[in-house]
Amino acid sequence: MKAAAAAAVMVVAACTDLATGIGGRPGPEAGLLRGKQPLRSAGVTHVARLTDGITAAPGDPARTDLTSLFSSPGGHVVYDLGSAVAITCVALDADSGSSYTLNVSADGVAWQPMSTAVTVGEPGIQTRAVRKLTAVGRYVRLAVEPGGGPHAVAELSLASASDCTSRWPPPLAVQRGTLLESSALSKWWLFVALASAYVLAFRRKLPDFIKLLVAAPLGIGLALAIQLADIWPPPSSLHAPLAGGAAILAAAVAIRVVVSRIRRRR
After folding, report:
1. Are residues 16 and 85 in the same domain?
2. CA–CA separation, 234 vs 185, rounded Å?
3. Per-residue pLDDT tens for 54-89?
4. Total domains in the fold of the chain
5. Which one of 146, 175, 204 terminates a domain?
6. pTM summary value
7. Which of 87, 112, 150, 183 is the most buried (most CB within 10 A)?
8. Residue 105 in 3-state DSSP?
9. For residue range 113-149, what is the model confidence (pLDDT) as tens digits?
10. Separation between Cα atoms, residue 228 and residue 232, nearest integer Å
């Protein structure tokens, strides 16, 4: 029975195409960063996506739920490898319209250039892989270079000589991302529908468990606010829906006020 369970786990792991051991720890092919959180970061959203083993399909749009956005000119992340390591291979899955620089340091203060990931011609997210580097250090910094855009990274991978196999870049789970604008739009209309329904249906005499349904629009609204903060200012494609949804909410509130006044007069 135990052997069958172990075999099943191995099949599932193989199907995900992730270099992860049965115990959940990244295997040798995953490289040095898989699953690591940065020591520090600035001007970068959703840093966990940089090393989660999930990448966008080639040509996927840059601004999706699979990428981290380097939202400021000084955007960067710094990783601590734990000790000085010889870095031989680098792979970066990022948008084709930006350039990124990798630096290495022994103390996290003095930085030396390790590699520059130049832009590529194909649109969307593309993989840039470099071999035969001779960098040595404990700390690694990924920074965006000025110009270009939209500065989106789906995955960063590093490997030492012993783990830089012929399969480099490392195996990753490839997915199709959802555009941030599309995701925000869906959340917005859901929020408008739930909030309008709650406003129109609300009565002071309703049971408390019914009143607690306000948590639904509030939860969607919070998720929407977080997502809009990532893409602020909102793109022009969202201007009309945001205005239209706000008008619907205002109309629901106005109807509720009028109905309440009529009931009071009775």
Report:
1. yes
2. 11
3. 999 999 999 999 999 998 888 999 999 999 999 999
4. 2
5. 175
6. 0.74
7. 87
8. strand
9. 886 555 555 778 999 888 888 889 999 999 988 777 7
10. 6
Query: CA–CA separation, 191 vs 185, rounded Å?
Result: 10
pLDDT at position 19 over 80: no
Contact present, 33 and 79 (Cβ < 8 Å)? yes
CA distances from 97 to 103, 117, 120, 151 (A): 20, 11, 7, 7
% helix, strand, coil for the chain, step of 5:
35, 25, 35
- The helix/strand/coil state of 52 is coil
Q: Identify which of 106, 69, 99 has the alpha carbon closest to the alpha carbon of residue 85.
A: 106
Q: What SS3 state is found at 180?
A: helix
245 domain-assigned: yes
CB atoms within 10 A of CB 34: 23
- Could you tell me if 129 and 161 lie in one domain? yes
Using alpha carbons, select from 175, 160, 177, 171 the residue that is nearest to residue 13: 171
pLDDT top residue among 191 and 229: 191
Query: 160 CB contacts (<8 Å, ≥6 apart)?
Result: 32, 85, 86, 87, 88
Non-local CB neighbours of 57 within 8 Å, separated by 6+ positions: 125, 174, 175, 176
For residue 68, report the phi and psi dihedrals to the nearest 5 degrees: -100, 135
What residues make up the domain containing 64? 10-175
Give the integer Cα–Cα distance in Å for 246 and 192.
Answer: 8
Residues 166 and 216 in one domain: no
Residue where a domain stops, chosen among 118, 140, 175: 175
* Residues 203, 136 within the same domain: no
Q: Check whether 20 has a pLDDT greater than 80.
A: no
Record the tokens describing residue 243, joined without a space: 């205005």
Contact of 45 with 230, CB cutoff 8 Å? yes
